[in-house]
Amino acid sequence: MAKLIETSTTPLRSVDVDVVTLDLVENGLRNARYEMDEVLFRTALSPGIREQHDEFPLIANREGKMVVGQFGLSVPDFLDNFDGTIEEGDVLLTSDPYSCGGSISHANDWLVVMPIYFEGRIIGWSAMFGHMTDVGGKTPASMPTDAKTIFEEGVVIPPFRLYKKGELDQDALKIILNQVRKPDWNRADLNGLVAACRTAGRRVQEMCARFGVDTFDSALDALLDRNYQAMKVLLAMVFKDGETISFTDYIDDDGRGNGPYELKLSLTRTGEKVLLDFTGSSPQAEGPINYYINENLVRMFFGIYMITVADPQILWNDGFYPLVDVEIPKDSFWQPKFPAALNARNHGIGRIFDLFGGLLGQTNPNLLNAAGFSSSPHFMYSGNYTTGPRKGEWFQLYSVCFGGIPGRPIGDGPDGHSLWPSFVNIPCEYLESYYPLRIDRLETITDTGGAGLHRGGNGVEVEYFFQEPGTIAIHDDRWLTYPWGVNGGEPGARGRKWIQRVDGTKEILPSKFIDVPVFPGDVLHYITWGGGGWGDALLRDPELLALEIRRGLISTEGALRYGVVCSEDGVVDESATKALREKLGAGRVYPLPTFNMGPPLATILENAFAETGLHAPKWPVPLL
Amino acid sequence: MTYRIGVDVGGTFTDILLMNEETGETFRAKTASTPQDQSIGVLRGMERACKQAGISLDQIGEVLHGTTVATNAILEGKGAKVGLLTTTGFRQVLQIARSFVPGGLAGWIIWPKPEPLASLEDTFEIRERIGSDGEVVIELDEADARVQLRKLAKRGVEALSISLINSFTNSSHENRLAEIAAEELPGMPISVSSTVLPELREYERTITTVANAYVQPQVAKYVANLETQLKGSGVQGKLFILRSDGGLVSAQTAAENPVSLLLSGPAGGVAGAVWVAEQTGYRDFLTIDIGGTSTDVALVQDLTPRVGRETTVGDLKVRATSIDVRTIGAGGGSIAHVPALTKALRVGPQSAGAVPGPAAYGAGGVEPTVTDANVVLGYLPTELAGGEISLDRAAARTAVQRIVDATSLNTVEAAAAGIIDIVNENMLGALRLVSVQQGFDPREFALVAFGGAGPLHANALGILTGAWPVIIPPSPGVLCAYGDATTNLRNESVRTLVRRFSDMTDDRLKEMLLELATSARVPLTTGGIAAADQEITYSADLRYHGQGFEIPVTIDLDAFDGKGGGLDVLSSAFDAEHQRLFSFLLDTEHEVVTIRATVSGPRPEVIAPVLPEGSSDPAEALINTSDIWADGGFVKANIYDRVKLKARNVIHGPAIVTEMDSTTLVLPGHTATVHRSGSILIQPLGATETLEG
User: Fold this and answer.
1) A460: which of A30, A567, B38, B370 lies 20 to 30 Å off by Cα?
2) Helix (H), strand (E), coil (C) string for A257-319
3) Range of the domain at B122
4) Residue B309: HSE in the Cβ half-sphere, 13 Å Cα cutoff
5) Is B207 among the domain residues?
6) Dihedral (Cα; A11, A16, A19, A24), 10-degree rounding
7) Is residue B378 part of a domain?
8) What is the DSSP letter of A203?
9) Chain B residue whose CA is closest to A196
10) What separation in angstroms does the CA of B287 have from each of B430, B440, B445, B453, B476?
11) How far apart are CA A546 and CA A531, in angstroms?
12) Using one digit for the tens of pLDDT, what is the confidence trace for B273-302?
């Protein structure tokens, strides 16, 4: 438990805050939070943060409750686990998920936490974590897909004071940076994280000076309460008292040949509270896909879904947390026992959005989206230049790939986009200028989005032409189970990848691997999955399909799934279409099933090798 | 010839400012804009202004024009049908759009994705490939290119854009393709990415090129049409167009690169602010232009507006140099509302627009707007000077009552004051974007406020930012036309290098800069400006090697001594900016991404107008008194007629100054001093700084 040192002990007074001041404070906090992003994006060196914006800021009140931010983390958990004093000018750093209650969930994420002082008293906290492209360990990018323990995943930094009273602990930083492959990147990104947190600190101090510290603090309480009240109304509106709803989705494998992992989430409302229960999920994985989840993160994910749809203008925060209880079984996928490997938890983070979507959508059609591009698949390539002016120099690429957004109540899912806020792909010209590779193709793949009244977005194909020998690594998923469709929509296509070797052989790659050697002239084909479809495909406007055929987003064959017969140049055969739609619709039972997960799991497993060229994984069992 | 004329065409009004270059005397005309053919309104306004001045059209020297033709084409989605040629494998560059989804977590659920500016069915792939080092990987397949172009010809496109991978390092394929396209599609306007934006990043270059093609036919037609009409009416002088970066270019140049005109309108306002601020002796200031639906802000340092490399119009973001103007959706028409779930008081981003407009306009609006709040509080007199519009105070109160009913605010006045506080706060947020967030302390700047509603909110924004004095220009509603008439010709040449400092020498960089200068001079020289009158500035976009964003830094060519002095100075300048912006430095090598040479013509020698001198007592301009809301109660405020104010008059707040197109609010505890140049300077009471003049 951290000991907080404050020179002023006068208690803050709780004062009334008028609605206008409240909005002014809310606005100021929102601006400060976006300023944090801006500072980091513009200064970061590692591709993960710089080009893809894999980072998450927050500002919390003096008790550590998030008042603005996204993704959040639990400052209270962090402080509970920190054994030491904290005083003005201190900046704390950690990358150890096990030492902060899962506030971060793998060792690549470096979390900076900073107390914000005003007149000798802690008045709030700023915190930000960012994904470091490399934190050392046995493989470039530090995410070994075959790891069984966190000890294989590079440097793990326990919570400590990186700055003590404003003074940087050079020695500690030196020890940490000595263990990573690109210390320049980590140093720059860490500088950016600290600068962003300090920026937030200054903004909060300015607000305290402007509005008065009592008013500021009371305003934060009022903002938290605003969320609490809003959520209370929403919960009662959306969920029936006493009824339990459940949803299950999967992670296909753990990188070590086990899978698929069952992720189950249930919700029950009792009175004004709801319980989110992960009981029934698979046991902890042998490989590194475990997602050590923090209870408050679960609350936050839940809140995002509820509030985004209800009032997108709201600055959502931790205020509603008392309304949500969370049950996470021990030694499970969601709460593995130390020292379980954690590096590949990004699939879990992604899939939780599909889980919540599927769960909450059962009660509210406004919330029901199909399954989307619920991961942030990684691609890594590294080695030493063997020719040219940079001969001998180390190169290391880390990038995130994108896919199909699912069919949504408001319309089609965009093709080849990101489910993550502010993520962007790395420009091909940038990649080619900085790495020994060429991108021969970057496009979305015809027919990979699930058919529906609102179709799923297409997945993406990237062709990487390698120019230097090196090794590649990939973290991906949904090669086995399908991105499901809803309300009659069909599943999207699964992801796949292979290398076309320079000698002409084709090598199918699994969805998770490290250290596969590549040579000049080899071409990697990386195909991500499509989004699931929404609603009855037979109701989609044939003329829209004709247009999409002209656009190359759907093929004439793909249009048949919609019961539409159309020529290559996009002319609809109306009578053939009518006949086909009648034929496909015959014998259907309406309403169509809410979820279409593709064939039964047993069939998927049985056909795995024939369909994908990859062997079905072994069903997970509890570890001894 | 001694007359020049500034022309600003806005959505509703066309503003004309005729200036006698020798006396500084100005003549204003405001006419309704004619959206079908803007040149009609322009000519009508010019005739009116000339009539006032008692001159004929053939006495006009130069016509200097800020235009929103390009902007409106984007905002209204009424640009040309654009064809796009890409390298094989990159057909969907606009469809993928860097995979970006705006909004927060789960934002994708509610995001309607806009259609690409060039449709996929009008996009064709060309077999060719240039490497990142400029080498040809695959030769351009000319025969196949013709096949693709013939397919494209059947699509009925009105403009063509070409954007091939890595063309910024080697434009030969794009240039050859453009030649072939000109043969296959005779008469078709063609935008080539290595000409429009020779910079790295294929999506940004492509969208900018496509945007250029998208607006080009309309801009070209408009400019040609206007030139013809001007000639036909006897105007002898040349037509110049104001670009987004605040420089004027010949009509011809503007029509060739119209993507650089997207912020022509706002740039005119900032240029006008530069002109008036200079007259009052202030060189560092923020500008705020508050209109009916939006507010534009910018920062000017030493009379030079900060420029950015990005231009944003609606959903569209392109890479084009422009004055760093930030726009927020808040203005007089912004609607106040209270969401049921949160009971928060929100203002905007919805706007009542021109129709129905604020409730006080009596045109059917019932929702409370910022203008209604201003009417309730007495800041906008119900009889506006000029008498064109009278405001319905009762309707405004009824509208604002909705807020009283939905919140804990007890009175209509309290609700109206809340609306004003919140909208001011939103504007403060915009001003912070260009100041605090760029490392500038607004207290070291003045604040120039214009646009129809700017002078109403200006004093309050001065209090919030600490930027004093607050300067209200003469004719705040036609400041853009002022800017058009008082700025200079400018052209720039750009080149992307992406090269580490260790891979470069002073001499080589200097050589490249001089080459850029030579090409940037051409349009000015052909425009008749002597080489000696052309001023050249150099700048570079730098970053630490490996960073994703660049910082623009001015280059001092004199420091290039052939021994690395130039690069050293550049490094230090970058470090200073990095420190200022982000508060730390890195021990990482510097890298130059883009270099540019900017050539400017001389500022026109326009004499500033001078007001007749009066005493400190403004009594001669007093119209009457009225009640206005301040600090929780109504107080008596004097109302003055701006036209009758004289230099040195000092108005004590609370007071209101009215004029044809704007109303200035002076709050209690503040004074407004009339400057001889016509501007009003608002200061806190007892501010020690004595105002010049």
Assistant:
1) A567
2) CECCEEEEEEEEEECCEEEEECCCCCECCCCCCCCCCCHHHHHHHHHHHHHHHHCCCCCCCHH
3) 81-188
4) 21
5) no
6) -30
7) yes
8) H
9) B582
10) 11, 14, 10, 13, 12
11) 20
12) 999 999 999 999 999 999 888 899 999 999
Virtual torsion, Cα A299, A300, A302, A303, nearest 10 deg: 110
What is the number of alpha carbons within 13 Å of residue B53 lying toward its C-beta? Answer: 29
Strand order in the sheet with A496-500: A437-444, A460-466, A523-527, A496-500, A506-508
Same domain, B500 and B564: yes
Domain end residue (candidates: B570, B600, B630): B600
Q: What is the DSSP string of B352-383?
A: -TTTT--GGGTSS--S-BHHHHHHHTTSS-SB
B660 has a pLDDT exceeding 70: yes
Q: Does B121 touch chain A (CB under 8 A)?
A: yes
Q: Both B525 and B549 in a single domain?
A: yes
If asked whether residues B592 and B661 sit together in one domain, one would say: no
Contact A71 B105 (CB under 8 A): yes
**Which helix (H) or strand (E) is A219 found in, with range?**
helix A213-238
My answer on whether B689 and B544 are in the same domain is: no
Percent of chain B with pLDDT strictly greater than 70: 98
Q: Which residues of A touch B202 (CB under 8 A)?
A: 427-429
The secondary structure element, H or E, covering residue A42 is: helix A19-43
The amino acid present at A88, given as its one-letter code, is E
CA A326 to chain centre: 20
Do residues B87 and B74 share a domain? no
Residue B60 host element (H or E): strand B60-66
What is the CATH number for B260?
Answer: 3.30.420.40
User: What's the pLDDT at A565?
Assistant: 98
Could you give the 3-state DSSP secondary structure of residue A241?
A: strand
Tally: H helices and E strands in chain B: 16, 33
The interface predicted TM-score of the complex, written ipTM, equals 0.92
pLDDT at position A69 over 60: yes
**Residue B98: CA count within 13 A, CB half-sphere:** 22
Most B-contacting residue of A34, A43, A434 (CB-CB within 10 A), to test interface: A43
Inter-chain residue contact A427 with B92, CB threshold 8 Å? no
Q: Which residue, of B545, B579, B600, is where some domain finishes?
A: B600
Residue B224 in any domain: the answer is yes
Number of domains present in the structure of chain B: 5
DSSP A539: G
**pLDDT tens sequence across B464-483:** 999 999 999 988 888 888 88
- Phi first, then psi: give them for residue A333, nearest 5 degrees: -50, -35
Shared domain check, B640 and B594: no
A366 pLDDT band, cuts 50/70/90, is low
- A166 in contact with B at a CB cutoff of 8 Å? no
Nearest to A418 among B92, B101, B432 (CB): B101
- Distance (Å) of CA A489 to CA A246, A455, A545, A586, B127: 20, 8, 15, 17, 37
Is residue B220 domain-shared with residue B313, that is, in the same domain? Answer: no
Asked if the structure places residue B372 within a domain, the reply is yes
d(CA A469, CA A466): 7
Residue A310 has pLDDT above 90, yes or no: no
Q: What CA–CA distance (Å, rounded) separates B90 from B88?
A: 6
Q: B533 to chain A, minimum CA–CA distance in Å?
A: 38
B107 and chain A: CB distance < 8 Å anywhere? yes
**Peptide bond connecting B654 to the previous residue in cis, omega within 30 degrees of 0:** yes
Which range is least confidently modeled, A256-270, A420-434, B182-196?
A420-434
Same domain, residue pair B417 and B293: yes
Interface of B with A in 137-156 (CB under 8 A): 137
Ramachandran category for residue B515: left, alpha or beta (phi over 0 → left; psi -120 to 50 → alpha): alpha
